[in-house]
Amino acid sequence: MKIYKYTLIILLIVVSIPSEAQTIKPKQVKKEMKSVANWQIEHFRETYSGRKKPHHIAAWTNGALYVGMVKLAQMKGGKKYYKWLKSIGEEQKWKLHHRKYHADDHTIGQMYFELYRKYGEKYMIKPTIESFDYILENPSKEPITLDKYKHLERWTWCDALFMAPPVLAKLTKETGDKKYTKFMMKEFEATRNHLYDADEDLFYRDNSYIGKLDNKKKIFWSRGNGWVFGGLTLIMDEYEPGSKEYEYFKNIYLKMAKKLIEIQTPKGHWAMSLLNQDKYPTPETSGTSFFTFGLAWGINKGLLDKEVYQPHVEKAWNALVSYVTKDGMLGYVQPIGAAPGKAWADKTEVYGTGAFLAAGSEVYKMVKKK
C-alpha cells in the first residue's frame, strides 16, 4: 500500500510540472513553425479583427507576417516559403503601400530587401529606394505628437519603430549610402524622447497614454512594446557591433530586456497591459511572440546571459505553442488596436503569426546550440 501511495505522489508531481520545464527540441520547434505558417498561407485571404475585407497584401499587418515568414524561409527546407513571398512581391509589383510617409506602409519593404538578398534582382528594391529618396528630400514638417491621429507622417506611435526603421537600416546596408541611417537615427531619437519612460524602460503607445493610469498603473501596451523590442533586433542586424548605431540601439534593448523578464507572468506570457497582470489575465500571443523573439535573439547574439534569460524564453515558448490549435492556428492574438484589450483562443491575426515565426526562428537556434 505504501508503494502505491509513493508511486501516486510521484505521478502527481510529474503531471504538475509546469510547461516551462518541458524540453524544447529543435525539430519540434520547426514543426510548430511550419504548422502555423502553412495554416496562415491557406487562410491568408480571409478576414481578421472583425474587418469586412481581407488585409491588403502590402498593409502593415501582412508586412509583419512577411518578416516572420522570411525567417522561416531562411531555414533549411524553406524554398516553399520563399516562393510564396516572391509571389506576393510580384503581385504588388515591388511597391510599398499607398501612403508615402506613413510608417505602416513601409513595412513590406523589409521583405523586398530580404528577397533581393536571396535573388539579387535590383528591380525588387528599386521602388522602395525611390520612395525613401523622396521622403529624405521632402521630409515631413508635422510635429512628433500623434494628437488623435492627426499626425501620421512621422513616427508618432511606437509601433512605427518596427515598421520603418529596419527598412532604412537595410537601405544603408545595401546601397552603402549613410543618408538613410542619418535620417533614421534622427527620427528614432525624436520618437524615443517623446514616448520612452526612463523609469520603467518601456514605451507608451502614443502621447495619448502619457500620464494616464489604469487600475493605478501606467499603461504600457504589450504589443506596442513588442513592436519596439522586435524592431530593435531587426535594426541591429544591419549594423556592426561596436558601431555608434548598434550601441545606441543595444542600450535601449538591454534595458527593455531586463524589464521584460521582471514582468513576465507566471504562465509564461506577458500581460496585455505590461504592469497590470491582475486586470489583464488573458494570454496574448502577439506581444509575447515579439518578446520571445527579441530575448532569444539576444541570447543567440551573446548580448544576454543565457543562464538568466533562457528559462524565461523557454517558459514563453512553451506557453505560445500551447495556444496553437491542432490545425496550426495561433490563438489569443489581440485584434487590431492601440491599447490593452481582449483576446480569444479561437481568434488570430496575421501579424501574430509573423511574430510567432520570428520567435520560433530564434528559439530554434537557441535550443540547437544547447
Automatic annotation (TrEMBL):
State if RNA-binding is listed as a keyword: no
Keywords, ordered alphabetically: Hydrolase, Signal
Please give the Gene Ontology molecular function terms for this protein: hydrolase activity
User: Is Hydrolase among this UniProt entry's keywords?
Assistant: yes
| Range of residues in the leader sequence | 1-21
Q: What is the lineage of its organism?
A: Bacteria, Pseudomonadati, Bacteroidota, Flavobacteriia, Flavobacteriales
Give the protein's recorded name.
Rhamnogalacturonyl hydrolase YesR
UniProt-listed InterPro entries: 6-hairpin_glycosidase_sf (IPR008928), 6hp_glycosidase-like_sf (IPR012341), Glyco_hydro_88 (IPR010905), PolySaccharide_Degr_Enz (IPR052043)
Which GO BP terms apply? carbohydrate metabolic process
